[in-house]
UniProtKB/TrEMBL annotation:
Pfam families associated with the record: PTA_PTB (PF01515)
Lineage: Bacteria, Pseudomonadati, Pseudomonadota, Gammaproteobacteria, Enterobacterales
Protein name, UniProt field: Phosphate acetyltransferase
Ranges of residues in domain Phosphate acetyl/butaryl transferase: 2-195
The encoding gene: eutD
Domain of life: Bacteria
Organism: Escherichia coli
Record bears the keyword Acyltransferase: yes
């Protein structure tokens, strides 16, 4: 990902001097939903502690999920940070690196079934995430069909999502290529895509 990690600070939630401040902030934020003792206990959890660091502006982001369930990773973010204005749903991304190739898979963990608008929103937000990590976003909207090779309501949904995502990206002047619908192999293997 070409990231400079030379100035990263490691913080241990159990011994951090920031913990008392974050506990108070959490109690205020949750307004009667958590006592100070409950907040103290929750902030022993690295996901809650890390999310509070982001919320307080003391960290730029949080990477989690490899050693924690999706629910344990997402729950603190939903309780503390919520979605950004103009975004109607939470979604996740996975970074996949194969040699020199870098991929973001957007949303393979949170939303079980989406309509066209939801798919489009996640495609655009995933492209924005790619840009924020210095990647050139080329979004392939996946399906079991490649460019109309199969017919079904699910294929139509993805085709509509492609159009909506392209429109949204254009409206937002987002520099991203968004196309589909593609089967995975057609999206990722140039030789298959050419057929």
């Amino acid at each position: 990902l070409n990231l400079d990690i030379s100035n990263i600070e490691l913080i241990n939630p159990a011994t951090s001097e920031l913990k008392a401040e974050l506990v108070q902030s959490f109690v205020e934020l949750r307004k009667g939903k958590a006592t100070e003792e409950q907040a103290q206990e929750l902030l022993n959890n690295v996901n809650y502690f890390g999310t509070m660091l982001v919320y307080a502006g003391k960290a730029d982001g949080l990477v989690s999920g490899a050693a924690h369930s999706t629910g344990d990773t997402v729950r603190p973010a939903l309780q503390i940070i919520k979605t950004k204005p103009g975004v109607s749903r939470t979604s996740g991304i996975f970074f996949m690196i194969k040699g020199d190739e870098q991929y973001i898979f957007g949303d393979c963990a949170i939303n079980p079934e989406l309509d066209s608008q939801g798919l489009a929103e996640i495609a655009v937000e995933s492209a924005k995430s790619a840009l924020s990590f210095g990647m050139d976003p080329k979004v392939a909207m996946l399906s079991f069909s490649t460019k109309g090779s199969a017919k079904s309501d699910d294929v139509t949904k993805v085709q509509e999502a492609v159009k909506l995502a392209q429109q949204k990206a254009e409206e937002e002047k987002l520099e991203a290529i968004i196309d589909g619908e593609f089967q995975f192999d057609a999206a990722i293997v140039p030789g298959v895509a050419e057929k």
